[in-house]
Each structure stands twice: as structure tokens, then as C-alpha cells.
Amino acid sequence: MQTSPLTGSRTIFLGLSGYHWLVIAAGWAGWGFDVYDAVLFNFVARNCIPTLLHLTPGSPGAKSAVAFWTGAITSVLLVSWAAGGILFGWIADRIGRKRALFATITVYALGTGMCALSTNLWQLILCRTFAGLGIGGEWGIGAALVAEAVPEDRRVEAGVIMQTGSPLGVVLAAIVNYQVAGVWLAHSPQSAWRYVFLAGLLPVLLAIGVRVFLRESERWEASRAAAPPSSPRELFTPSLRAATLGGLFVAAVAILSWWGVNAFVPLLGASLSAAEAQHLRLGASEAQALAAAWQAHASNAFNLGGLAGAFAAVPLARLLGRRAMFASYFLFSALAVFATFGLELAPQTRLALLFVVGAGVYGVFGGFTFYLPELFPARVRATGAGFCYNTGRVLASFGPLVVGSVSAAAGGSSAALMQVLCWLGLVPLAAALVSWFVVVETRGRTLPA
Question: Which residues contact 228 (CB under 8 A, 6 or more apart)?
Fold first, then answer.
């Protein structure tokens, strides 16, 4: 064991003390449960939307409605997510990281749990909007807290570790959906989705732990004592404008690519399973179980790929720098999307290749947890990181809406969905070229005070 130069406490692993790991764990779990609650809807959409619209599940009208409303409700979530990120980022710079983090986790857990009580589609949208405020607020606060707590030379590793909570959160959502809708309540798909949403209340326990065990960020307290309260307008002053616009660019591209694919991964898995169930002449309950299993397979491949891709951010950031790192991720994402959705492949092969898509489209987020905090001084760090990450969601919110609308117009089939997703690969391809001109390089810089 050694002594940490930042806190004076003994280090236990990777030059980090026990309290460093506690902060990382809180950020990791907060972000993991954040994404867990965010994507539960995508797993239950094919059952809850027909139920709330009084449509027959599996009918042509239900398939089109599911494709359209999956995209539309995801877009609504992204807008409320953005609003929550900007609002709570500003709050965190005003009242502190700890209290703001507690508030965001509580809001997204309660909002998701309330979705289970919806009796019509508009109530569901209202609950998703409320949850989105907390979902959007958590990431920027957690990233700022982790970046400010750990030693300078471990910021990249700490940020990447925090990001791994995201794909694991989606894996957890897939497991919960499969267990509830595919095993326990496979015979009752019209009500199983309500119990899946109730499982979104789990993060309340984490919020209590944050309130009890975490300390306030020392860097934020020092900044608060030395300067007046921050204002979001400072992000566009000459000294920060380039950083703000560069951070916004990479966030918008990554989020558009991720949500354009991820929002439809469970639906793709279920759609591909329908043909298999028909070929095997399965009964209704067996087909429901197969759909849940293929949903989980598709989601797990995509998200485990994201987990592997996130870890790649450590060597890429250290060897190539931030600008080349993002360009590499975007180019890899484009090639993976073109291959997975554009080639003639067996359904099982296509599902397996979602791992490669996730490594690029999802893995790129491993860089945001350390890169965005590096762009801004402490007094506007949560505001700046939250603004870039979440304003990017507003710009990206049109992606799921377009994918869902075009797929619905084509009947909601898996073939139509894959064709639209293939065209989505043009977004990261163009971004790989533009990155060289707009991304601000921060490799080697100390975290701004």
C-alpha cells in the first residue's frame, strides 16, 4: 500500500484509496441504474404500446404502432433527458455534487416506477418525461464528482470504470425483462410490462447510500469559496467557446448513433425471432419466451461489445490523444454498422455482430467521463459537461423518431428496420472526418481548477 498524494489516505489498487473507489462505485452504480431505467421501456414497448392503444399484439397495426411510438417516446425521453442534464448540472454547481446526485437518482427511479401505473399512452409519456429529468441529470454530476475526487494520473481509468456501469445497466435491464416477461409472466404479456417498470424503483436504495456515505467534492467547495456562482452563459465566453462546441459535437454524434441503434435493438431481436417462431411452429407462450430470449441475446451482444469498447478508451486516450481517439471510434462505428445491417446474414450471425456494433457505437462513451470534465473549470464543470452531453441529446432526439417513422411506414418489419439502421452509419463516418477540426485536445492537461 502507498499513500495518495491527493488525500493522504492509503491506496489499495491502481493508486486509488478506499474512498476513491467508493466515489467511483457511486458514479458507476448511479450511471448503470440511470441507463437501466432509461432502456426498460425499449424491452417492454412491443407489449405495453399495443395494450395502452387497445391493439391486438402482433397485428400489422400493432407492429407499425410499436415501431413509431418506440422512436417517438425515445425522442421525448432524450429531450427531457437533455433538460434534466442542463438543469441539474447547473444545480450541482450551485448546491454541490452530493445533494444533486441524490436528487437525480431519486427522480429517475420514481419516474420509472410510476410508468407501471399508466392506463394510457399519454400517462406513460408523462412518466417517462419526469424520469428523463433525473436520468439526464445524473451523468454530468457523477462524472464531475469522479474526476474531481481521483488523482490526476488516474482520471482516465476512473472515468472508463464509471462508464462500464452503462452497458452493464442495459444487460441488467435485459435480464430483468427476460426473467419477468419471459419466465415468470410469459403467459401474461399484457401485464408483465408493468412489473418490469416497477423494477425501476431499485435505484432508490442507491440514492440513500449516496446521501449517507459520500462526502462533498473538495474541489467544488474550494471553487465555490474562491469565486461567485457560475452561469451557463460562461460556456460561450471566448475562453470556453471552442471547448463547449467541440464537446457538444462529439456528444451529439455519439448519442445520435447510440440511440438510433440501441432504441431498436430489442425490437430487432423480437422481430427476427418472429420468423424463427413461425418456422418452428411455436405456440403463443413459447413464441413469447423465444422473443424475450432473442431480445436479451441482441441486447447483451450490443452492450457487452460496448463494455469491451469502453475499456479500449484507456490505451487509445493515452497513446493517440483525445482527438484521434474519437475519430477512431467514429470510423470503427460506421464500418460496423454498414457490415451488420447492410450485408446478407443469418439472423443468429446478425445478432452476434451487434457485439462489434456496440464496441464502436457504445464504446465511444468510455471517453466522455474523463474528456468532458477536462474541458471546464470546477465552477462550471457540471454545467459544462451536462450541457455538452445533454444538448447533444436534443440534437440527437430526431434520430430514433426518424428510424421509427420510416420503419413504421415500411410495415415495421425487421428488413425495413435494418435498412434504415444501415443508412445511420453515415453519421459516424462523416464525424470521423470532422473530428480532426473541432475536437479540442486535452491530453496532458491537469484538471482545470
Answer: none
Residue pLDDT, tens place only, 5-53: 445 557 677 789 999 999 999 999 999 999 999 989 988 998 999 999 9
The radius of gyration of the chain from alpha carbons, rounded to an integer in Å, stands at 21
Nearest by Cα to 45 from 304, 291, 372: 291
Q: What is the DSSP string of 139-207?
A: HHHHHHHHHHHS-GGGHHHHHHHHHTHHHHHHHHHHHHHIIIIIIITTT-HHHHHHHHHHGGGTHHHHH
**Cell reading at 337:** 454498422
Phi and psi (nearest 5°) for 377? -70, 165
Alpha carbon distance 313, 325 (integer Å): 7
DSSP secondary structure of 154-168? GHHHHHHHHHTHHHH
**Structural domain count of the chain:** 1
* CB-based contact 78:394 (threshold 8 Å): yes
Pairing relation of β-strands 11-13 and 16-17? antiparallel
Residue 10 DSSP code: B
Residue 365 has pLDDT above 90, yes or no: yes
Specify if 218 maps to a domain.
yes
**pLDDT per residue as tens digits for the range 158-167:** 999 999 998 8
Q: Is residue 447 part of a domain?
A: no
